[in-house]
Structure formats: structure tokens, C-alpha cells
Amino acid sequence: MAFRNLLTADAGTVRTITVNRPDKLNALNRETLSELKVAFGAARDDDGVRVVVLTGAGPKAFVAGADITEFAQASPADALAFSRHGQELMSAIERLGKPSIARINGFALGGGLELALACSLRIAADTAKLGLPEINLGILPGFGGTQRTLRLAGRAATLELALTGATITASRALELRLVNRVVPVDQLDAEVGALAAQFAASAPHALRAILDAVLIGGECGLDAGLEFESRAFAVCASTEDMREGTRAFMEKRKPQFAGR
Ligand code: COA
């Protein structure tokens, strides 16, 4: 699949999607948002893809936000459509049904941080810089940033980031629980690669059950969430992978999950 603003590459069952506008620090213009929607839709529908890594081209940026030049003159109606366009993408990434890893190699600001927050996990280089600087433009995060930061990092951190617009270091982002791991920049690929390989070898239906239980069940009350978990557990019991996983344990060998 050819894109104007993205690169995609497969290594086994790991698909890497790279936002490729390095001269604009990979800022998300409308076309890039649309291409990301197509790329993630294709990854979702392809059983040969078990994990997606999302990153930015060049040494400087993961994604430095929504493309400011595209919404500078927006009317309220344009802004509503732009926000919904971005939010739909983020929700599609979050509900991919397979693990996604944000490989944060540099600036992850505004829409870039929102993109990373929609992924299942975030691995940041120690050189990365993160933030929600929209307040400096007279706006607020509009691609889910107020809601996903709140859910991941809590109200205090969300208000601090969004109200001040401050750019923070990767280690501060780790303290705030915005990222899962921070590694020296020269170890970023090894860390992301090892995690992706682990997911690629895992049972895909069980991975999906975990994602659904946490992301969908977690938005309900506790009783409904527990019911969701029990039903997802029952679905896992219908898979060959569950038989393989339990049999491999008893036979003291590594399981080979076929994804059935
Ligand atoms: N939208 C559009 N263009 C952007 C952009 C964005 N969000 N972020 C960076 N760019 C462009 C710059 O305009 C510049 O383009 P030019 O060379 O045609 O002038 C190019 O990317 C390089 O950025 P530059 O600002 O020169 O790099 P820098 O190292 O001096 O600063 C940042 C890096 C990230 C601090 C700075 O680019 C910035 O503040 N970007 C905007 C971040 C933001 O507010 N994001 C939220 C948007 S909702």
C-alpha cells in the first residue's frame, strides 16, 4: 500500500507504521490523519499482522502535533470536523484489537502525544520531549488528549500539562505514567523490537481479550467490567491457543500459538 505521508514495513507479523514528514517534524495534516486511518484499518484486518509499531521519521520527532498551518484559519465548524477526524483515528488505534507500541523517538507534542496515548504501550527514548502545548495556541487538545491523559495519568497531571503547555522530559513522563518505559536512545529499537516480538509470539485472541477487557470493560462500572472479563475468559476457552498454552505448560515446553 503506497502512502504519501507514511512508510509501512513488515518484519514477520510485526508491522511498523512511520509518519514520514520529517521536514515538518511529522506534524499531522488532514491527509496524514486519513492515511493513518487507512493504514491502521489495514493492520486491523490483516491476520498476518499481530502487533503494530508506530513511530516518526527522522531523529528529531515522533510527531510534533497536529499541523498548525491547517487549522490556523479554521471556523468552528471546520475545527469540530478536524477534532472528530483526529478523535476517530485515535479511537481506531485504541480499538485495533491487537497490541500497538508507540516508539517515541523525539518530540511527542499535542496530537503527537495524543497519538501515542491511543497506542497500547509507549516506549520513549531518553531524549524524547512530551507535552500538550495547545494552550499556547489558544486552543485545547482536540484529539482525545484531555480524556486519555486523564485516564492514564490522573487529573493533577492532566491539568498541569494542559494548563501550562509545558514540554516535559521522558523521565518526567514516566513519573506521570504517560509512558511505560524510557530507554537510552541507542537502545530504543532493541527495546521496542523485543516487546513487539513477545506480542507476536503471544496468543492473539487472548491479547485481544485483555485489550477489550481493559479498554471497554474499564469504561463500565466494576460489576459490568467483571462480567465483561468473565465472558472474555469464556471466549478464550474456545480457542486452540488456550489448549496449546495449558498443554505446553504441563509438558514443560514453550507454547506455539497458531492464532486459532
Ligand atoms: N504544525 C505544522 N508545522 C510544524 C509543527 C506543527 N505542529 N511542528 C513543527 N512544524 C514545522 C515548523 O514550522 C518547521 O517548518 P519550516 O521549516 O517550514 O519552518 C519545521 O517543522 C521544523 O520545526 P522548527 O520549529 O523549525 O524546529 P525547532 O527544533 O526549532 O522546534 C518544536 C521544535 C517542536 C519545539 C517546534 O517545532 C514547535 O513548537 N512545534 C509546534 C508544537 C505544537 O504546538 N504542537 C501542537 C499542535 S496542536
Q: What does this entry show, briefly?
A:
The chain is α/β, with parallel strands linked by helices. A six-stranded mixed sheet has the order 1-2-3-5-7-10, with helices on both faces. Strands 4-6-8-9 form a four-stranded mixed sheet. Strand 1 (6-11) and strand 2 form a beta hairpin.
Please describe what this structure looks like.
Strand 1 and strand 2 form a beta hairpin. This protein is of the alpha/beta class. It has two domains: 195 residues, 2-enoyl-CoA Hydratase, Chain A, domain 1 (Alpha-Beta Complex), CATH 3.90.226; 47 residues, Lyase 2-enoyl-coa Hydratase, Chain  A, domain 2 (Orthogonal Bundle). It contains eleven helices and ten strands. The strands form two sheets. It has a six-stranded mixed beta sheet, with helices on both faces. Strands 4-6-8-9 form a four-stranded mixed beta sheet. It binds coenzyme A.
Q: Helices and strands in order, then pairings?
A:
Layout: E1 6-11, E2 14-19, H1 30-45, E3 51-56, E4 61-63, H2 68-71, H3 76-94, E5 100-104, E6 107-109, H4 111-118, E7 121-125, E8 129-131, H5 145-153, H6 155-164, E9 167-169, H7 170-175, E10 181-183, H8 188-200, H9 204-215, H10 222-236, H11 240-250
Parallel strand pairs: 2-3, 3-5, 4-6, 5-7, 6-8, 7-10
Antiparallel strand pairs: 1-2, 8-9
Bound molecules: coenzyme A.
